[in-house]
Amino acid sequence: MRNVFKIVTVVLSLLTLASCDLFKTTSRNSKLTGIPFNNNGFANFNKSNGTRSQEIPMGMVAIEGGYFTMGQVQDDIMFDWNTTPKSMHVRSFYMDEAEVTNAEYLLYVQYTKDVFPPSDEKFKHIYNSVLPDTLVWRKSLGNSDILYENYLRHSAYADYPVVGVSWLQANKYCKWRTDVVNLKKLIDKGYIKNIFKNDSLRNFFDTEVFLADSDRLFDGDSTVYKRGIRTRSSARNSQSSFQGRKITKADGVLQQKFRLPTEAEWEYAAKANIENREYNIIRGRKKYAWNGKYTRETSKRFKGDQLANFRQGIGNYSGISGWSSDGSPITNKVKSYPPNAFGLHDMSGNVSEWVADVYRPTIDNQANDFNYFRGNMFTKKMIDKDGRVVIADISDNAEVEYEMLPNGKISPKQLPGSIKYIPITKDDMTYKRNYKVSDYSDIGDGDLNSSRFYQDDEDRFSTRATMYNSPREPTREIDPDTGEEVLVKDAKKRTTLISNKTRVYKGGSWADREYWLDPSQRRYLPEYMATNNIGFRCVTDGIRPMSNNNKTARNLSR
User: How many domains does the chain have?
Assistant: First the structure.
C-alpha cells in the first residue's frame, strides 16, 4: 500500500510539473509564434540554450562590476594632474589572476613558428614579429648579460612574467589565445577532429573565419568537422558524415574574445573595493591593491613581510643579504605575494602592465562614465563582390603584407588566413547618433572639433600642426645608392610622446619606488616600444550577470 502511495505521489507531481511553465519545453519553440527552433522540419531556425552558463576561463577570476572612484588617493607629486578622481562604473568581466609568464608566451612563440615557419619566404618576418625584445635588459653601465641571454627561455624563469613585449605584441597574443582556446574547446567537445595529430594539416585556426565561413579553414578539408549542434527531425546519416548544423556565436560554445583590460577595468580590479565596503558604501579609499596604509604585512604570522616586489630605495632592490625584503632584485615568480580581494596577484609590483587605452592627460568621465575607454576604432569586415568576407590569401603565390614600425621592426599587417577589416565609411554612419567617425582615439582632445581650427575642413586641418607636438610617423623611401627600402624618421624637434599611438601602462614594478604601487597612477609609452619592467595580462567580457554573493538586487517600493 505504501508503494502504491509513492507511485501515485510521483505521477501527480509529474503531471503538476507538466502543466506549469517550468516543465514545458517552451525553450524549443518560439513563445510568440510557436515555430520550433533547431528543427529540420521547420527550416532549422537557430536558438541557443538560454540557460547555458558562462564558464570561468582557465587562469582567470570573476570580477563583479560596479561603481568606484577612479583616480589618485595621494598627493600629486608629479604635478601632471592626470589622475584627478572621477566617478566610474565598470561592467563585470574575467581577468587573469597573474601576468602572462615566459612559459605561456613561449607557447605562443612556438605555435607561431609551427604554423608560419620562418623558413618559408612569405612567412619569414612573422615569427620574428612575435619574439620579445630580450635586449631590454641591457644597461649602458650595468652587467646584465645573464638576463638578456636567459630570462626568456631558461627554465628557472619559466613562471616569471614575460617582459620585452610591446603593446602591439600583447594584443596579438590576446587574439591568438582566443583562437587556440576555441580550437581546443571544439576538439574536446567532439566538434572537430584533433588536427594536431594530422601532419598534413596546418594548425592554423581563426575563430572569426570559423563563424563566417568555416569551409575556408583547413585548406577546405571539410572532413575535419565531425559534428555540429544537434537538431530535431533530421535524417540519420552515416557515422562518418557531418551531423547537425554548423555552430554559431549564439550557441554559446565558443569563448568570448580575450583582450587587454581597459584602464578603468584594470584600476577597478586592482583596487578591489569589495574588502573595504560596508553594505553599499565604500569606507575609505585604498592606496594599494591590498587593504592598509603600508607595504608590509601586519598579521602576526607574516608580520613585516613585503606585500609586493618593488624598489626599496636607491641601489636597494631587495634588501640586504640574509634578510631580503621582497625576495627578488628583479621580477619574481608570479603569485609569490598574496592576492588582493578579487584573487588577483601582483596588481601592485613585480611588473607594470599594458592596458588598452590611448593615453591622454585627462579622462573625460562626463563624456562617458560607463566602461570608459579611449581608443575605439570602428571597423567592418571587408566583403567581396560575391558577398563573401575577404580573407588574407594564404596560397603559395600570395604575399604577406608587412609594415615597418617606427623602431625598424617588421610586422605583418594581418596574419594570412584571417579576415580583412576596413574602417567604417560615411555611408555606414548616416543618421547615427552614437558615432560619426571610424577612429575615436583623439576625440575631444586633438581632433578637429576640439581645436581652435574647428571650422576647417578635414583636408585643411590635416595640414596644420597637431595639438600634441609628438614625432610624426616615419616614412619608407628607396635609397638611391643601394636600392633598398629605408626608414626616414622625423628629424624635427618634438616636445612630447603623446599621440594616437601612445598607450597607457599601469601599476608599479620591480624597478619602481613605492609611489607607483598606487593603482591609480598612470604612465605611457609608444605602442611599439618595450621595456624590462612592463608585462601584461588578459581579460574577457562577462556575458551574464555575476555576483560574489547570493544577494539579488531588487527595487524596493516604500
Answer: 1
